[in-house]
Amino acid sequence: MLKRPSSSDSEADLLRAQECFLAAGVPSAVRVLRRPEKRRGEPSGCAGEEKAEEEEEVMVSCRDVVTITEHSEQIPSLTPGPSKKSCFRAEQVCFVDEDPEAELERKDTHVTAVLSRIIEHDTSAVPVSFPAFTGAAFPKVFHRSEVEDQGITVAQKCRKSIFAQKIAAQKIAAQRARGKGLTGGDPVQPTLVPQGTSCAPLASMETASLPSGSEEHAVSETSRLVTGLGLSGHNGSLEAKKIHEENEAKLHGMSQSEILEEQRRLLSQLEPRLVDFVKSRKPHGGCQPSAAPLPAKEEQQHCFSEHISQEVEMEDVEANVAPAPPITEDELPVKPEKGWLHMDKLEPEKLEWMRDLPASRKRSTKKAMQARFNFDGVLISPTEDLPTHLGLHHHGDEPELAGYSLQELFLLSRSQVTQQRCLALTTLGHILTKARASDFASSVRGSVFATLLDAGLLFLLRFSLDDKYEGLMAAAVQALRALLVTVDDEECLDNTFSWFLGMATFPLLPFAQEEDKEDDEGLEDALKETAKEKEEKKSDHDVARNDVIKGLLRMKLLPRLRYILEVLRPPPRTVLDILEILIRIARHSPTSAIQVLDCPRLMNTVMSEFLPCSWSPPVSPTPDRLHGFPVAAAMKLVRILATAGRHTCARLLNSLGARERISCFVAQEPQDLLLEPGEALRISTEALRLWAVAAGYGQACDLYRDLYPILVQTLQSHPMRWPPGHVLRPLELQRVQALHTLLTNVTHTAGCHQELQASLTSPQETECPPPPSVEWGHVTGLQPPLLASLKACVKLLDEPGQKENILSLLPSHLLYLGAFYSQLSAQSSFQPVDCLQELEVLTSEVLIPLLSHQAICDLIGNLKSCSALCNPLSCSDPEMVPSLPSLTWSGGKPALSLSGSNSPFPFLIALCYLLEVLSSIHKGIAHKFSHLLLSSALMMYLQACCQAMPTVSLFSAWPLWHEQHLLYLLVKLALRLVPVSSEVEKQISLYHRVAATMVPWLLPGSEYLARDLLSTVIFNLDLITEGRCGGPEAADLSELQLQEGGSFGHFPVGPLMRDACAQLPSIRGCYLTHLASLEPTILYSRDRHLMRTPWVRSWMLPEVQGPILPSDWPFLPIISLYERVGIPGGGDMQVEALPQASVKSVVHSLQWLLILERWRDGVLQAVTPAAKLARLSCLFLCSSDLFLERPVQQLTWALLRSLCVPARLAALDLGVPLPGLASFHDLYASLLSQFEAVSFGDHLFCCFVLLPLQQRFSVSLRLALFGEHVGLLRSLGLPLQQLPVPLEQFTYPPEDSLTLLRLYFQVLVTGALRCAWCPVLYVVALAHLNAFIFSQDVVSQEVDAARRSMLRKTYYLTDEVLKDHLLLFKVPHLQKELGFDAYEHLPPIRARRLESVVGMEEGESLKT
């Protein structure tokens, strides 16, 4: 064995080792190869390797080359990249023992696999033609002049080589020669048909048959599909002609119906591409005029073929207009000359657009047509004929129609010409603006927004923002603004900012879609992916499809917008569009607002460029740049960001200089801001609103002390009268309202100072915020001027031109007074006597005159008309897409709407808030406001609210948020008036009904309202008047009337109702205990509702994913217990006997359900009878003995009786999806198993098992009992008299399931079903089997055989009693002992049926 060289060997040792290696003849460990040089064309395959092996010895003798296979011989590149490999090399896998020839035979499918039944023609008689002899030794050289002279036009030789042109000339000459041979004369030259000449379609898609003898017959004598060009010589043309003649003969031998049927079959079997190819072979522009008339038969077939063409090719018929002949040189306005470069060749296809437009087609079809728009986004009617100078005609598929379709605009947006791309994006922006305004709602089918988003508009706009051309970038920004921003949303939110809790807004988030959890099933919690990890794995397209804003943020939109603002410095229109886009992103969610704030240099650019503290006056009213000037939209952006959270607001105030901007724009009057008057008012208003938001967190209150004189001066100097038609009046009113909102929030903050100051000295479990810098003494001076302003407003209501202005200012005045007196009563300096006298003066001088004013009465009269609860939209916004939601319908804001000019909601909410505060302080003046609660308009509104069932969504959340505040305040005010007003006490049940009805649709952020209503109103016996004035006795009477035809359940309902009323405090505690999981959100909601500003975390409300409580919230204790112990393998308390506390919880829930069903039936109108039945069925699945408890038995019997009322029983549908259940069948299967295990034949349990077995429900429920749980038939012993529903519900209509009928027969014959064990189902089985075996309806053979078999087996039964019951059954009858009537003898019709089945003798014996 050779020794391996070591590092200590010398050169002599290495040479000696080399000689020993060569002498031993051992093969080397490496191979010496020479890489082929591809640039020199050296082979790289097997030949190259063989050549390398041959040259190996020569190369070794020349030099020593060592190649290590593990390392490459090339120097690696600095930039790593994939090595170049053959795309086919990796697929060639070879094995040592593989035979290439056998592999080829195995994988190669012969041509016979494609072509079958190939029959060769007999060519023995075909003459053999030899090439002509010439005297030239070589073929003649091609010359260009000779090629051009052989009839090849310019269009034919375009983009062809000389050789291809020569071959084409030879083909043309051969076709001409064949034409001469077939017709015996010169070939007919093609002539153009004048425009308007019509030609009938052909009878076949493949061939055309014209009358023989005409000159044109030679042209169409051959097939258009089979030409024979692939065959040699004249044999090809002859074979093609033979095939064509065979086709013609076959067509002439077929009838018209056969031709039509064959054509339909071909069209259904062939691929669309092949059909289009066949149609393309059809000569367009009409056919040649025939010299001879068509024969009668062919004329009939000609007309019939035209009918076929109209039916199959409707689009072609509409466009069946012969095209104009190609343009010629004589028609050119300028004749080309030979000296012109590239103008010596006539190109007709490129000159077609020089012609006049074809006449627009008058379509009489009612089919939908493609929408076309002009450059302003206006929809163009298809029948409108517009002039061409408008630029709306283009080289599209329909050049005669003006306008651009959405597809054509998308195509134009990808043009290489920048102006065309700008035009496309600008037009798309205008279309989006029109669609947002619902201009296309009645004329365009579908949603324009959804169509454009599905087509990829979002990515188109995002890519266009990265373009280097400012015009294109500006057009993209404008279109993006039209896509994202809803002007009506911003207008409504700005108008309601000064309402009660108007600063709070919902995030504009799409409804979260449930994601598939199949990938995480079976994994441990530690291995499951979090929501953030799943979101990161999604592509941009998937994210944008679910949420447009989130998709744009994912595509780095914010850095690009910052670059445009900071570097490109666009014109004013683009700047305003970008700011509105940022506002929409900030409204999306708190997370999006934080991303806007965290984007590097974005907010610094906004603050420095568009909110400077000093600036020069603009030279013109419309400056060409907004950089360096204050912009109201920038201040609004800062305000929207501040609503995202208190920490965000603190960053804006302290780090970005928002505090200095507030001081700058509030300290100066709008006319002193060196801006356009409207813009100055807008930016001053936004500064006050930003300050109000900061004060809503208890921040920026030090500015109040510094600017107090200016605020008081502004408060006293604002005008109370405005001339009619004043342009700036709306802006000035909004500024006054913003000032009042600021003072209201500062007052709330000052009222919390004392509580926070006391918390510093007393130990607290939780950390409290520091006391604000403003104290109660700092705000007491604001009340006199505001009260004086309110009195002046009341006096100005009588002036005709000031009514609208005053009504818009009244809510902010009332809200301030409510805030002032609510905080005053909690201060240590509170003087009760002085305060009570002051409240009496306020009531007598201001509130009573205000409530009795005719303008206020008219305003209250609009309550029901403006209610979103009483007037749900019949259809939502047609342009709203789930991924881009909005708050309002952009189709226009009528005056009679929640935020319209005639809406009473802002005034009534503020008034009820003030009255509730005043009546809590001075109970003696509460009765003076009773006429408000008893007004007819208000009563009609409340009754309509009790019948409403709103659907909670983001579209409806915003109006419902404000409307629920009005209802809550009305209920609380009525609760305070019950002890002092007998008239209000008579109507208190209506207010209690309103409170119970509104609980299921309270929105996120209103958890405190739900808790307060449940604590003080819902379970208050004083508001349930039925429990105090003969309600239980009336319930007993109604129960007696209900049970006239029969009774089930022997427990009277009157004592149950009295006991339930007595247990209302315990019932309240039970439900409040089940709301303990909402305690953190209840505290956050309480701080926001009571304006405890230092504790408020955010003025952006929680995401709208549905109401706080489900619609079936009264069943909450039962459902909670079922989820803990009733689900097999998933409960926490796997015990048979429940704790006493759980039993009491169930009893309290059943008592409350009984009260609602008897006295407040409208509260549960949103819960279907099937859902109620499913919830009550959970009682039997919670444990083995819960349903045996006496209180549970009595209450459940009472609820079952109310559920089986005919009206509710008719509405019972077990096939609809039930919330919280995968299917009712699964629940019923569990119920059957539980009954079989622990029921002991309990009659109540029997009723719940029997109810789903009615004939109108799914047969699978009956099969589940008779097929899988036959054993429970022995214990299902409910008497017929206690059946909760009529027996006819189980016997009609007759059963048609053969499987179930066989099961009926089987359980009867085997004795599993007996009358003594299960009387109800015994009668049901008899009724269905008797109707089946004696039925003579026409049925299938299988059913008839089963029917005869059952009848025969019945006759031969050894059990004579069962036999008589089956044969002599008449009708069900509950008063009979067996539950049915029977014939004494078999009726004749049944006897004849029996004779036909079992035989004559047996039939005669049965008759006797």
From TrEMBL:
A Gene Ontology biological process term: transcription by RNA polymerase II
Task: Indicate the principal place this protein occupies in or around the cell.
Answer: nucleus
| Keywords from the UniProt entry | Nucleus, Transcription
In this chain, the stretch annotated as Disordered covers: 34-55
Which residues belong to any copy of the RPAP1 N-terminal domain?
Answer: 241-282
List residues of the RPAP1/MINIYO-like TPR repeats domain.
1114-1338
- UniProt-annotated location(s): Nucleus
**Domain RPAP1 C-terminal, chain residue ranges per copy:** 370-435
Family the UniProt entry places it in: Belongs to the RPAP1 family.
Protein's name according to its UniProt entry: RNA polymerase II associated protein 1
